[in-house]
Amino acid sequence: MAAGVATVWIVVLSIALSASAAFMLRRLFVLRRSLREERLRGRALADAVREVAQASAEGEAAARGALFAAVARLLPARLLLYFQADGELLRCVDGWGPTAPAWRGVQLLRDGAGNVVTLAASTGCAQVLRTGGAVRPLIPEQRCAAALVIRHRDRLCGVLYAGGLPTAPTPEALELATLLSTACAGALEAGARIERHVTEAITDGLTGLLTPRAFRLRLARALAPAAHDRYAALALIFLDTDHFKRVNDRLGHAAGDALLRGVARVLRECCEGASALIARNGGDEFCLALLDEGKGPAVERAERIRRAVRALGSDVSASIGVAAYPEDAQSAELLLEAADGAMYHSKRSGKDRVSVAGPLGPAVASREEAEGS
After folding, report:
1. Using an 8 Å Cβ cutoff, are 192 and 85 in contact?
2. Do residues 373 and 344 touch, judged by C-beta distance below 8 A?
3. What are the structural domains, with CATH classification, of the chain?
4. What are the tens digits of pLDDT across the range 134-191?
5. How many whole angstroms separate alpha carbon 209 and alpha carbon 242?
């Protein structure tokens, strides 16, 4: 009898131990899977941060593009918008998705905590009530959205809005996306610094046009052998203002600077809609490369520029030279020389005119001849 009872207890104990062991094995399996998923999430997060950091070497726009791609893998949004902090505003500066271009420049008002309180522009969209986690969508028809606050050293940099989500984001996905955006804040700031340095290096401080070095590098790139198929024709306009020194001497440097900015504005307006490189060549000289434009249309454009400069007043006019690729020169340096020589022909011929290099124009004087006359 005692032996039978002992046997029963042994069986019961064995069953209990087996059940306990099975439960523990299940718990270990779940824990192991959870650890593996956590490790995979951590690796994915590290890879995404690395991608954004690498992209930041090309500037803030490239870093934002990499961040959009990483967030889209976590939150299947139809629309991603980056609102940059600008005082009391959040201004949309970038986006991803078919409707993103329509949002560029839209401003949102925010309070001191960074929460969005209303739209600063009339867009016909609902308000975003807060900038943390799931939010009311900017576009009501999209139903589900999320907003990720991006801070760097306790300073609000911006808000990444993810709209058009098929369902409300899971806490895990939202947490990972928030971690990602927070981890990438430094990379976005680094990209912004790089863009500022690049802009300062290639942009003339007075006019906002390209510097001579930046212009020549881009012109050479446009005329490189690999680009010949892309630019079958290219025209170069070289402009020098007439009587600029008289304005500077009579009215002062401030008036001279205002005149140079006016000429830069004329060049931009006369090239609106065209593919062009515009530069201040130094002093009161300007260069303009018209990509995919032949000599005839370039001469017509140069005449419009001449008349517009004349309309600036102060008895200022422009002497302009035009040269074209490939008929006048096959390299950037020779093309610049041809247009420069044509411009000096305009100077010698009475100023306030357009001269053309090569067989379609008059015999062109060199810079040395013009300056010596």
Report:
1. no
2. no
3. 55-199 (3.30.450.40), 203-372 (3.30.70.270)
4. 556 666 666 778 888 888 888 888 888 888 888 888 888 888 888 888 888 888 887 7
5. 20
